[in-house]
Amino acid sequence: MMPFLLAEFANREKELPLYVCCIGSHEQKQLQRQGGYPAHQLFLCRRGRGTFRLAGGRSLSMTPGMALLLPAGVPHDYAPSDADDEAWDLGFIAFEGSLAPSLLEQMSRFALTAVKAQNFDTLWEQLAALWHLISLNGEHAYWEASKRLYDILLTLLEGQAPARQEQGGLYPFPQSNAALQAAVKLMHDHYNERLLIANIARAVGYSVQHFHRLFVAGYGMTPQQYLLQLRMRRSVQLMGDHPGIPVEKVAQQLGMETSYFIRMFKRTYGATPKQYVKP
């Protein structure tokens, strides 16, 4: 889960040809936008099923691994499927800028169409990395965020392009960052254990120093920062799902010492866990 994050880059709209308006991922509930949304939106479906309904009665089904590009101002509503007990997990990026119209024209075959994204895992990791970049750096991230947003849109475009032919055979696009994706998956799968970055680095075939450099270059933060942010977000989710859960129990489920967890939580959210959940 990446809580809704508003990117306050509006004062840079004359400088940035492409900028993020908001970004996040969550369990999507029913939502109606009769006047559309003021910015262009890219949706990624990670889990569950749901339906977008457009003006004129057109329906678009969104299932895991699918992407949808929705231009600004298009009336729509969307809701999870009643027939699916699994939560509908949607990632989203809203964006604008002087470059946006020409990009949308180039990607017109994706607009208002739910497509199976061939490189969905890469798109999701890019979305997560962009969210973390903005979350940790705020306005100081505006140039880098613009570049990463452009990369995401190109990744979507590249993933739907026909495979190139070379010497009579298929010439696949290189799978860059595969080791980093494996490392991030390890963190998400084992965040509740006492993970050592050195062990993660070895698991994906790198020295600790080289892994650290690659991770910072790819995600805009250190592996330790990424793991901490993951645990902090999970702690908020645990306390929301289980009101009254003891702080010690939360720390235990995150693989952290209680005193260290409280200290890191306060540094992240500006309040202790008990203060954070107090009505």
Q: Can you give a write-up of this model?
A:
It contains ten helices and twelve strands. The chain has 279 residues and is of the alpha+beta class. It folds into two domains: 161 residues, Regulatory protein AraC (Jelly Rolls, Sandwich), CATH 2.60.120; 105 residues, Arc Repressor Mutant, subunit A, CATH 1.10.10. The two termini are 23 Å apart.
Layout of helices and strands, plus pairs?
Blueprint: E1 2-6, E2 19-27, E3 31-33, E4 40-47, E5 50-54, E6 59-62, E7 66-70, E8 76-80, E9 89-96, H1 100-106, E10 114-116, H2 120-137, H3 142-159, E11 164-166, E12 169-171, H4 178-190, H5 197-203, H6 208-219, H7 223-241, H8 247-253, H9 258-269, H10 273-277
Brief characterization of the structure:
The chain has two domains: 161 residues, Jelly Rolls; 105 residues, Arc Repressor Mutant, subunit A, CATH 1.10.10.60. The chain is built from ten helices and twelve strands.
How would you describe this structure in keywords?
alpha+beta, six-stranded antiparallel β-sheet, four-stranded antiparallel β-sheet, 279 residues, 2 domains, DNA-binding transcription factor activity, 10 helices, Arc Repressor Mutant, subunit A, Jelly Rolls, globular
**What is the rounded Rg?**
20 Å
Helix content: 40-55%
Q: How many domain regions? A: 2
Largest sheet: 6 strands, antiparallel
Tally of alpha and pi helices: 10
Uncertain parts: 162-176
Name of the CATH class of the largest domain: Mainly Beta
Task: Please state how the strands of the largest beta sheet are arranged side by side.
Answer: 1-2-9-4-7-10
Mean pLDDT: 82
Domain HTH araC/xylS-type: 181-279
Pfam families: AraC_binding, HTH_18
GO molecular function, one term: DNA-binding transcription factor activity
Organism: Paenibacillus sacheonensis
